[in-house]
Each structure stands twice: as structure tokens, then as C-alpha cells.
Amino acid sequence: MRKKIVAGNWKMNLNYEEGQKLTSEIVNMYKDENIKDVTVVLNPPFVHLFPVKKLIGNTPNLFLGSQNCSEKAAGAYTGETSASMLKSFGAEYVILGHSERREYFKESNELLTAKVRQALDYGLTPIFCCGEPLEIREAGTHEAYVKNQLTESLFGLSAEDFAKIVIAYEPIWAIGTGKTASSDQAQEMHKALREHLASKFGQEAADHTSILYGGSCNPGNAKDLFSKADVDGGLIGGASLKSRDFMDIIKSF
Ligand code: PGA
């Protein structure tokens, strides 16, 4: 059985008080509402990691993640944060290759290979993002485009390392736009990606890989998306900033 995962991506939002308030609400609701069998990950900006971890404590199945890490282990890289630092501050997951990082910070598939390596070397689980822009979807070449992102960044991994990866499919045209992929579009891509992973790492490994959907996922559409055979949860942006919405998504399996 693969894990059901809902990860919240705060992006560059919330000051200290707002972050503490949101986390406290989520932790309390999470405990009160008896969530079972869902792994929940909060991915705040770096400066929030430590105080958010303090509030999460050892709540079972509720984890801390970051939105990025350096491709370097340590050294003179001003402004960067290493995977080993993140781990030492209590992070268990790291989002890598988000389309905003690819677009605004020019992160290439090659750079992401190095980031994935760092994450794995220091015991973080990468939530590896992939997804196509609108023009690629309209040209009908989206499957090949997204498969290539996986091939170039992940296919050099050993089977043992690959088994630690979580994939997040996020069509760029659906991120923050209010325009969600239909559950059939999500399922079609997730199935194609799972087949692609199976061709390299074997069917069993592919069957154990959680593939999350991201892009305007909200309490109104999560149930439909999560009902699909190859959709194992969500990477949630905007709706993860509202505790009730985020919890309702978590409860949508
Ligand atoms: P969104 O963002 O839910 O606000 O569309 C998803 C993401 O970018 O991870």
C-alpha cells in the first residue's frame, strides 16, 4: 500500500504570528478530528521551520518539510540552506523542482538531480514536482514533457533511493489559477507517470510510489481527485493557508 499524503506549500506567505496561528489550528484540528492513515506535511518558508516544528512536536503522521534546499552540502554559498541543516531542525520532507523554482530561479532538471541527491544523503524525503505549461498541454505533448522531467532528474537513482521519492504532478496552468485539472486529466497523467516509473524501476516500486496532484486543489474538488486510482493525495498551495480548508482536504480520501 502506498502512502496517502497531503502536503501544504505555504510559498512565501505568512509572518511569524500568522504562521504560528495557522500551525496551532492545524495541529489542534488534526488531533481533535481523528485523522487516520494520512501523512500530512507542512512546508513553510525556512524561517518558520523551527517554530512550526515546536508546535507540531511529535504528533503522529504530521511532519515538517521545506520548500527547497541547496544542491551543495555546505560552504560559502550565501543565502542558501542545506539539506543537513533542514534535517537538524526537524524537517523530514523537502519540495524540489516546484514550477515556481524552475521558472523564476531557473532550476534545471540537472540541478534538481543534485538537490535530490543532497536530500537523500541527509535523510529528507523529496517531494519531486513535475508538470507542463499551458502551451505544452495545448500542443498535446504533455505526457512526453513530464516523463522527460522525471527521466532527467530521477532515472539515475538506485532502486533503493528511488523508493524514498514522492512525486507531485502539478500542471502549471492549474497552479494558483483556480483552474484545476479535471480528475480524469489528473488520473490519465498519474497513470502514465506510474507506467513510466515502472519501465525503469519495476512495477512493484512504481506501485509503491505516492503521486500527488497539485494545482488549485481545494475542499470542493479534493474528494473527486483523490478518488482516482493513481492519485495518492495533494500538494496544496492557497488552500493550505486556511486551516479549515486544509483539514477538509486531508479528510477527502
Ligand atoms: P495552488 O498551488 O494550490 O495554490 O494552486 C499548488 C502548488 O503550487 O503547490
Automatic annotation (TrEMBL):
Q: Which SUPFAM superfamilies match?
A: Triosephosphate isomerase (TIM)
Stored InterPro entries:
Aldolase_TIM, TIM_sf, TrioseP_Isoase_bac/euk, Triosephosphate_isomerase, Triosephosphate_isomerase_AS
Where are the membrane-spanning stretches? Answer: none
Main location as per UniProt:
cytoplasm
Binding site residues for substrate:
9-11, 176, 216, 237-238
* A GO CC annotation given for this chain: cytosol
Q: Which GO BP terms apply? A: gluconeogenesis; glyceraldehyde-3-phosphate biosynthetic process; glycerol catabolic process; glycolytic process
Q: Which GO molecular function terms does the record list?
A: triose-phosphate isomerase activity
Q: What is its EC number?
A: 5.3.1.1
Pathway of action: Carbohydrate degradation; glycolysis; D-glyceraldehyde 3-phosphate from glycerone phosphate: step 1/1; Carbohydrate biosynthesis; gluconeogenesis
Its recorded reaction(s) are: D-glyceraldehyde 3-phosphate = dihydroxyacetone phosphate
Active-site residues from the entry? 98, 170
Q: Where in the cell is it found?
A: Cytoplasm
- List the keywords (alphabetical): Cytoplasm, Gluconeogenesis, Glycolysis, Isomerase
Q: Name one Pfam family in it.
A: TIM
The free-text function statement in the UniProt record for this protein reads: Involved in the gluconeogenesis. Catalyzes stereospecifically the conversion of dihydroxyacetone phosphate (DHAP) to D-glyceraldehyde-3-phosphate (G3P).
Subunit description: Homodimer.
Q: Which PANTHER family match?
A: TRIOSEPHOSPHATE ISOMERASE
Q: What family does the database annotate?
A: Belongs to the triosephosphate isomerase family.
Sorted alphabetically, which HAMAP family does this protein's record hold?
TIM_B (MF_00147_B)
- Protein name, entry field: Triosephosphate isomerase
